[in-house]
Amino acid sequence: METNQVCPKCNGGMKIVPAGISQKTGKPYSAFLSCLDRQCGGTSKLAGIAPQKPESSVKVDFDKVMDRKADSIALSGSIRDAVQITLAVFALKKEAGEFAGMEVKDRDAWVLSEVNKWKDEIYKKHFDGIEF
Fold first, then answer.
1. 0.70 exceeded by the pTM?
2. What is the C-alpha radius of gyration for the chain, rounded to an integer number of angstroms?
3. Measured between alpha carbons, how far is 5 from 8 in angstroms, rounded to an integer?
4. What's the CA gap between 101 and 110, in Å, rounded?
5. Digit-coded pLDDT (tens) for 65-97
6. Does 69 lie in the same domain as 118?
7. Which of 13, 27, 35, 81 fits 42 for a cystine, CB–CB 3.0-4.6 Å?
8. Alpha-carbon separation of residue 22 from 16, 26, 29 (angstroms)
9. Residue 78: domain span
10. Residues 35 and 88 in one domain
């Protein structure tokens, strides 16, 4: 937005640059005046205007992010542990002949249900503060 202000360097016209966040530093800055001639580079503070917050600032709730991260790690670990337990049980049952004559799809369904059961159990223990 052009103003009737005059650039202190070149006496050219000036425009208002709204408050924002620096692309270089990532820090917020207040609105200011900037010369219309980019080669001049003249700037000036806006007289009589209190510093403004940027129009679009990103606020991150780091506690929430860390809680989600911890939850994701717990879920991932629960799935990994559930698969390991299920494979160990599967190997023992297979060796004992418990899967003899069972169709592959039924055996696969058993494996998936066991993984889900163990995952849920291990995941719950994460929230109870119980470690294995």
1. no
2. 32
3. 9
4. 14
5. 888 888 888 889 999 999 999 999 999 999 999
6. yes
7. 35
8. 16, 5, 7
9. 62-128
10. no
